[in-house]
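Key idea: predict the complex, not the pieces.
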Amino acid sequence: MSQIGLQMYTMRHVSGDRESFLNTLDRLVEIGIEDVQISVPAFMTCGELSEELRQRKMKADSVFCSTVRILDSLDQIRREAELLHTDVLRTDSIPAALRKDAAGYRQFASDLNRQGEALKKIGLAYMYHFHAFEFVSFGDIRGIDILLGETDPELVLFQPDVFWLTSAGTEPSDFLWRFANRARYMHVKDYAIRQLEGAIENVPSHFAPVGTGNLNWPGILKTAESIGIERFVIEQDIVEGDVFAAVKLSVDNLKKMGLS
Amino acid sequence: MGISIQMYTLRDFMKTKSDLDATLARVAAIGYKTVQISIPPFLDVRELQTLLAAHGLRADSVMAPTAAIPEQLDRICQKAAILGTDTVRTDGIGHAYTGSADGFRRYAAILQEAGQKLRGRGLNFMYHNHAIEYTNFAKGTGMSILLRETDPDCVWFQPDVHHIAAAGLEPSQALLAFQGRCAYVHMQGYAIIPGEGFDPQVPRRTVPVGEGNLNWPGIVAACRQIGVRLYVVEQDFCIGDPFDEITRSYQALLRLGVADD
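Result:
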């Protein structure tokens, strides 16, 4: 098991069919990726995916299911988790309809607890991956505060993402403490500034390979280690240039920072 | 220690002399004693000083475009003397310099020349940055070039905590790079607008100090550590009533332990 993983969403433009997908897996093995965060592709069964990963000594770090389908899909989830040899289920974002106010976030927190409880009964940990919009304020409380405060740490884990923590205006090396003992995996990518486009007040940010932007990596890795992060999952939502080179650069830089 | 307000925040309420007069009255009533203001087109520097004094306000600096500083030294010194300030602030880096590390090096030389000349006249010179100065080049950011290639005695900075965060840095850490060359700091909050999608450019907005997601206690601690004397409220865009928002900022700074004396 490596401390470094890859969210395969990063590779979506080079894995659209079976042939390119398998070729991409081969190339990732060469780069040194063993652990992947992956959804079962449309052109494959979960059993076939499991076999392709096994042949390459790769491993899926979780299975995926949308929040709204979990309670009706427990048998399928259990089967997929067995086939992929994982004990983690990750999910998608809070439904748009529940994002509008604090009551919506409270509803979603209660849903997460219920889903987490059902998953615990079949031996799975439940992991929510947030973005930046959960950091919206409703008076004195933010969406993320509600999710952290009103979900049961025994039932709901989080998968923090250092880019989105930064996009939200928090300092990741500080805010990550809020996930102490509630996070096993973390998404990593850098936050870079490129050319001036438009007004000086609205300089846009760019996704970038780890170590090539402005994030406070020493501080982030220090806190991540303290709160018990086991796996740093590279996810670069948008890549400028060759995606394999970008992933390799992230892997190399994470290793230079001391990860194995 | 003190609190100031960059009057750009209230730009829509100071387009005539009578509007400016009324706006300064409201600013003073909130508690502000210091303002950061450019000389408006309808006043000369003496008239501005008279107006400020009438409201019990003082200017924290005089504004001068970087490129014009070497030729306009006498005039700048005169304006500073009339406004009773020892600090010159300047405009932002132009588009022409931000595209390459070399461009930042050339701009650093321009800042250095202006700062040296002003130091020769006993004036402090400070550059106000946004996020673009943190453009990533192969060997570091534009800001690292500006910091490295200017003399800490001649070229100071007036960093903005919102824009440091918008560049992806942690303000409470990034401010430490300005140790000893940062007397003023721009303070504005950073919040996000609720969105439906996952666009990488998550809509962020400027909000009053103390609100939003910035690490305020960490920021104030870093400011104390690097020698900040003046906390300048600047809110690029207000959502509600700007006077209400700058009141919230002023009170939040007091709550954060910033004295206005």
